[in-house]
Amino acid sequence: MSGIIDFLTGPWEHLFMQRAFAVAVMCGAVSGVVGAHVVLRGMAFIGDAVSHSVFPGVAIAFVFQFNLVLGGAVAGLLTALAVAVFSQNRRLKEDTVIGVFFAAAFGLGIVILSTAPGYSGSLESFLFGQILGISDGDVITVAVMGLLLLLVAGAVHKELVTVSLDRETARAAGLPVFALDIVLYALVTVTVVISLQAVGNILVLALLITPAACARLLTDRIGVMMLLAPAIGAGSAVVGLYLSYEYNLAAGGLIVLVVTGVFVVCWLFAPRHGLVTARWRRRSGDVLAERNQEVTAAGLPGTVHGTAPAEQSPGV
Fold it and tell me: In which element (H, E) is residue 41 found?
């Protein structure tokens, strides 16, 4: 019993772990909300594209010695705006345009970095995250930006859902589809930027997409999905940090592995859409059908309903 208590309370004795828990929960919750819109839209690739498009901004910021997060945010927003503009040509699908600019931005980042030797240490932090090394200022920044993101997402929630479900209907209803596209891309970009310190550039897509994918498997209601996704994201971040502290392993990687484990469980055992539960329902239905056929063949009145044991049905 004391071991469990030590496991639960041990990390909270350290200030750096308190900061890490705060940022992890906030990033997990915000990523869950924004990621739900991304999953509904069927554009998971945008998260990967944006996470890589901040790369040249970080490189430029390093070369000219200004804030790396600010540089990444500007680069990500510019790339997101370019994707939104070029996606208006419906001849090309959205994922095609995203792929073009994702590759171009990453290539630009590599070229810029080749002119700045000695960046390897900072680059490692950017790629893999450094949640255990964040400062009080980082916590405040994530809190303020996260609150703004949630307020904006809540303000345009219905409009974003309408566009995600049917763009043409939304346009016919008079909704500013292009402006809403830009808003969603901007939400994704800022979410990715504030999450970089938690899990890093390489793993940020998992924090954005996987909790929302879990929620999508668990419910058919969008409102419930918007609540489940941030809860799964925040909870997975906390569990990942606990495991990181206990076993002295990479925090960002463990957060991603935990949320991926949750996804596998949902994929298998979700009440309506899980693989195992669906097969169990089919098998139960087959058994019920066989019992009904037996009852009919025996000439007995009525059929078997529900999943009651056969001996409860007369004559069986």
Answer: helix 15-41
